[in-house]
Amino acid sequence: MVVAERDFDASHLSGAQRAGWEGRQADRDRTLDAMHRLERALASPAPRREPAWQEEVLSALALLDTAMGEEEDNASQPDSLLSDIRRTQPRLRSRVRGVRSQYSQLRDRIVALRRELGEHGEGEDAPDFSDIRQRLAWLLTALRHQRARESDLIYEAYFDAFNIDLGTE
User: Fold this and answer.
1) What is the pLDDT of residues 75-99, one digit of tens each?
2) I want to staple 60 with a disulfide (CB 3.0 to 4.6 A). Which of 6, 19, 38, 149 is the partner?
């Protein structure tokens, strides 16, 4: 039996850990909403409406950048769930560092893509929308990978701390 993050039983967590979990979940929900908005923008028709398409994609990327920024900032706080894992479970410290590094790399990629897409004009300088779609699909895949990696880390830390398999709760 697989337990979805939404169904996670946080009753074993301390008050501070529970607050960290809830804050993390709110951040992840906000980022997921932004990812879905970007997917909708990318799926909208582009031929003969490149400027409108480009504006939709830029707007969605800006929202994703903001959401990721908040998530990254919150995950870096001393009272965050990742900080708690880093502090209390030494064997997982390098994985926490890796997750945080991925946040930073993904944010840098979002900023670069926003800049690149925003610099394109109309006519011959208009962006190749099929190329932009592909590159942003890779970014979304990397975001999903990062989110799964973070979830695995948190579940492993939970099991190590409480010796309870989440699948049996």
Assistant:
1) 889 988 899 899 999 999 999 999 9
2) 38
